[in-house]
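Q: What does the assembled structure look like for these inputs?
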Amino acid sequence: MTSTERLPLRRPERGRWVGGVAAGLAAHLGVPVALLRALLLVLAAMGAGVVAYVFLWVTVPPGDPVRAAAEQRAPELSRLARRPTLDPARLPVTDIALGLVALAGAALLVADRLGVQVQAQWVVPVLVAVAGLALAWSQLDRTERARWVAGGRTPVSVLRLAGGVVLAVVGVLLLVSQGASMSATINAALAAVAVLLGVALVLAPWWLRLARELTEERAARAREAERADIAAHLHDSVLQSLALIRKQAGDPEAVARVARAQERELRAWLYDDRPEPGTSLAAELAAVVAEVEDIEAVAVETVVVGDRVPDEDTAALLLATREALLNAARHGSPPVTVYLEASEDRVEVFVRDRGEGFDLDGIPHDRFGVRESILGRVRRRGGTAEVTSSPGRGTEVHLTTPLRGEERLRDG
Amino acid sequence: MGEAELPVDVVLVDDHDMFRAGVRASLDERVRVVGEADSVDSAVAVVHELRPTVVLLDVHLPGGDGGGGAEVLVRCAALLPEVRFLALSVSDAAEDVVAVIRAGARGYVTKAISGPELGDAVVRVAGGDAVFSPRLAGFVLDAFGTADVATGDDELDRLSAREREVMRLIARGHTYREVASDLFISVKTVETHVSAVLRKLQLSNRHELTRWAAARRLL
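A:
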């Protein structure tokens, strides 16, 4: 990254020792990780470091800072290949925390055995409160943290939060009400709950707005990405075509060709289901038609009924169709139409033009491509091919191929 | 089905000024444009006020509840027998076309149609006939199936052999006149068949049609 911009604060999965706080801070501030770790250790020895570390662990979201920076940029600027990501081995944070708690308990027991006066009335409440905090905070270290904040709570996460709050409240009450009477404890508890409720009430609108803004922002981001997709497509195709048209404004044929190709592409993009390549005879026919339109600079109206998976027989049929279309475009006059119908047992193609028409028998055997390239091709595959032509009504080529496979697509 | 009185009064509904101007210029003396509209709401108002013989209706229109041409048809349903609608669209999408037909339009042509052909189509619709472009005929064959399935179904739910033949010829790019001479029947008979197919397309609850429509997100 040569960017002068500061990376956002994230806890990277890679290169972390405990929670990734030091690594994330180092990336954010642009200082060596080792220096930051040493500083944190010194601070931790004095106590403040531990609090700061835990606070950051909980509040800073996990993630790759570099990728987060890329995501924060406008989507249209970031349509470049993503960096390959390694799936790092995650530190089992929960297990370590449980182990620490167990160790602390063991140490207390050992100390008690050795005759040290353990101040149980202090230690137990503190442990209870810390356990509650850990329980409530543990889910903030999850990647679904954002989802949780936005309102996508699961029953488990709610239960965890409730349990954590109860534990923490009990711990704090035990701590505060050392030796006080039962009624005083209850009063204090009531007062504490009342204060908490009051604070929650005050903060509720702010919290709701935050959650709503988060949802809206995510929706806006999705819209922005979609818009960028469309913009990219328009730029790649439509704007290029318009530039071409402007450049070739003096050549009507070239302009018509570019415009027709662009219209075809835009239609396919807007209206078609874009079938997988090699699964749709209709799509292959569309490609053949596009090629003929480009070669001969005519518009061909295409109507397709049914569809099937292409095979060798239909490939021969399409080649013959292509020849027939080229002939119609060269020797006939527009409109040129092609109609393909794929039924259960055969595929039929009609290619029609509105030219003068001609007499097939009157054409010398060695002259015209129709006989071999169109009629022969289909007949060799067991199909039928006939040409009807009469003066004033143009020419129609009718090709049929029987189907042997059972691969007809249901529903087209 | 009778001959329409000429010239035919037409209301032109399209949200593009340039397209309306182009259509007005390309229509011949058989057609008289008496009004124009550029949105769902204005179209409903203009059609109710002028009660033209034919409305040339763009499938994609702004305004209203966002239903486009089909919404105009639904809101003008009371006028439908006298006022006839011919749908015009740049879209090739089956759902757009079939939605306006099922809402009551008497035909569908693409905007690439030439002026004289559009004039023919308007006169034909004014006379009570249906206008099928090759593409619409293709949609019909796709929806109703090309094979003869002789079951005890409702008569609305399948095409007769003759109707299927007519649809196939239209899909192949033949004019009504050419269809008539191919099948050795009169143009009137061709028109009767096409109108029957239109009625089936509008009224059929055919299982295949429903499934076909659902596959194209129509329902």
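Chain B has a mean pLDDT of 80.
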